[in-house]
Amino acid sequence: xxxxxxxxxxxxxxxxxxxxxxxxxxxxxxxxxxxxxxxxxxxxxxxxxxxxxxxxxxxxxxxxxxxxxxxxxxxxxxxxxxxxxxxxxxxxxxxxxxxxxxxxxxxxxxxxxxxxxxxxxxxxxxxxxxxxxxxxxxxxxxxxxxxxxxxxxxxxxxxxxxxxxxxxxxxxxxxxxxxxxxxxxxxxxxxxxxxxxxxxxxxxxxxxxxxxxxxxxxxxxxxxxxxxxxxxxxxxxxxxxxxxxxxxxxxxxxxxxxxxxxxxxxxxxxxxxxxxxxxxxxxxxxxxxxxxxxxxxxxxxxxxxxxxxxxxxxxxx
Length: 317
Prior knowledge:
Radius of gyration: 20 Å
Helix content: 25-40%
Low-confidence stretches: none
Number of domains: 1
């Protein structure tokens, strides 16, 4: 069954997106110079995610230019508002949310945007925070019966995430976030991520575009100045997840300290079976029930093809 594009509802009515092909999108910033070397791009690649120089030039360089324009405009508006109110202008960080499924490549895109945006003259300080740090610790998830729903909206401390971004937006000199270890698959109690008044903060995570929870008037997405949703067919994401699982099984899972070390001795067939089981029971339901429904809330949608390359870009008018 085909999946509706984010600019078209099931009843055929359009939503406020303009859809551009990759070539048309690339033509929007033809004179923008790529500030990254090919070796830097290689280092930014995620596990099993091809990221070619042409992809960065055609897709992500124009995205960074657009974000730079938005950030500069937001800074001017903030100063004008402060002048109008007779207040002393205090620079407010521009906050970008990046959302999408597990294995869709959003982490790579967030890292790439961080590097590109930091090269623009007026936004040299760019920080990246993932929402993994705001997952409840495993002990608390187990107490709540949520270990099998890790990554679902209810598995996050949404109040803590909201407080964190609120403090960033308020211009606090220093804001701290919990640190999440992918090795131990848990929050590290004695480690933190420290953010000090960036020009731009990128917040990357599965459910960052979620509307307010029932009974709450505000969600973290209400504090974002710009949002990006990374999109692809469900069947492609499932295949990417399996491929990544197999690479991890042969690599990181072999570390005795890894939470998933028990999978390191599986045969390839057993590993594929286990990856498929995890996808069908956890990641796919989360995608279909919670993540993809937020796609229409994004400012920009990057639509990927089966080879991970972006073929279409949808921008909210």
